Automatic annotation (TrEMBL):
It comes from the Bacteria. This is DUF1471 domain-containing protein. The lineage of its organism: Bacteria, Pseudomonadati, Bacteroidota, Sphingobacteriia, Sphingobacteriales.
Amino acid sequence: MGDQLPASTQVDVYYAEKDVAKKYKVIGHIYTSTAVNANKVKEAILTKAKAVGADGVIILGIKTTGGGNEVETVQQADAIKYTKE
């Protein structure tokens, strides 16, 4: 959900807003849910971020719910675009 820009080929990954040294604006929020490991979730977020033209993503958190054979990992990230302002 958010702005759609030309696709990106490279997306920077951050784990806290304070780590982004460049000025930026949030162009969308990405939510990914999968029953596999966190690395696959991160990969899905990066794929979505590239598709919407993001320069980077700020990973906001990972949450695992369920148990046994019914574990679901949900990860949220903000897609960001660097600005010149």
